[in-house]
Amino acid sequence: MTTRALFTPAEALAATGGTARGLINTASGISIDTRTLAPGDAFFAITGENSDGHAYVERAFAAGAAFAVVAADRADGLPHGPMLVVPDVLAALTDFAKAARARSHAGIVAVTGSVGKTTTKEALRLALQADGATHASAASYNNHWGVPLSLARLPREARYGVFEIGMNHPGEITPLVRLVCPQVAIITTVEAVHMEAFSGIEAIADAKAEIFDGLEAGGAAVLNRDNPLFERLAASARAKGVARIVSFGADPQSDVRLVDVALHPRCSIAVAQVLGTPVTFKIGMPGRHIVQNALAVLAAASLIGADLALAAVSLAHLRPPPGRGVPLDLAVLGGSATLLDESYNANPASMRAAIDVLSRTPVGPRGRRIAVLGDMLELGPEGALHHRELAGALDAARIDTVFCAGPLMHALWEALPSSRRGGYALHASHLEPLISAAIRAGDTLMVKGSNGSRMGPLVKALCDRFRVSGDALLEG
After folding, report:
1. Structural domain ending residue among the three candidates 29, 60, 86
2. Predicted TM-score (pTM) of this structure
3. What phi and psi values does residue 186 have, to the nearest 5 degrees?
4. Separation between Cα atoms, residue 229 and residue 227, nearest integer Å
5. Cβ contact 373:351 at 8 Å
6. What is the per-residue pLDDT for 196?
7. Distance between CA 285 and CA 42 in Å, rounded?
8. What region, left, alpha or beta, does residue 68 occupy, with left being phi > 0 and alpha being psi -120 to 50 degrees?
9. What percentage of the chain reaches a pLDDT higher than 90?
10. Where does a domain end: 317, 347, 363?
11. What pLDDT score was predicted for residue 50?
């Protein structure tokens, strides 16, 4: 069996201008983590905040790395093996990314937005791979190392490529999108996220609009017409010379317009007009916000030249990425309960969307809808207000019981009526015994919070306590 050539030795040397030590081999993949390195991968010894990849070079050789990319000032102290020596390892990864993009003939889509980037990226992966070989960013690899890593992995034979681009501060998107150089750029929405780094939501919109800086000549911007910042984004796109602006949403003026929708607990059925073509499709995830982003997916598929019918049909197979609404069965005394794992991250918009999904999720006989909410971080001086305002969404959704964790969530706790209060703790881990004592058969819980609020470990603790073994439900 021949090894698929992602980068030959000659291509690796040409991309970086580095120096080979030992006999470097053709790389079939790229890795920055020896725990997941496959034989034939090139290992990049990146130095991060918490670890130095040079400490794992020997492990990479033992795992069968084609070669290790190492910094010149560290090379002499490393174990013997095939190495590509460069001045800076992260810069070399960017050089690989540039080389992969330069040789590619793929249709490229870039996705950013305050909410929904990863799910939209995964929906695009499904939609486009129905029409041809598609490469997409892994997980949420959307930052200064994740985007170059994802792009460097772009196979030369790919027909489509999808890349997620994120930011926490102004100026972060521009260099990344110039690397990706997409033909289509999507902004899912603009919301009050990472407010600590911005003067206001208009400044967030301007930072998201940096995605237009790298659009290929003649490329298209796909924008959410239902978002209040639409006109600002469209004006920015025009000012940056974007040739085509395509809007999506329920607004009657949308180029990709939602005509009708039926929201179900585990899926949605939608009717849309996609650039003049009527399309009826099923989406394998619940929530109106998912439907909204599916419109952007169909817009991009059409613009990039993919088969629209195949793209629409493929969305029925969409499933939530980890921590973004995955339903989990809990075995409790007398039956089972459902946990919706939304623990990956949170902001006011995504929190409201998750609460809405919870309101539509069925419960068993005498079951309750329970929201378990952790702090939403990086909201700036108005953080407490954003938390307190969730009380209205919980009331409108008729959520039965609310558990809160974190200092910011105390503002919500104080705003809740006593009939809705389930429990409060300063730390998420301290909620576990309170929830465990309260949960009963038929309940549906939704757990959500920012990564820093540590709601993910709370989900794991609940799953460990009320575990499922095989097909049998067992009380933990």
Report:
1. 86
2. 0.90
3. -110, 135
4. 5
5. yes
6. 82
7. 36
8. beta
9. 92
10. 317
11. 84
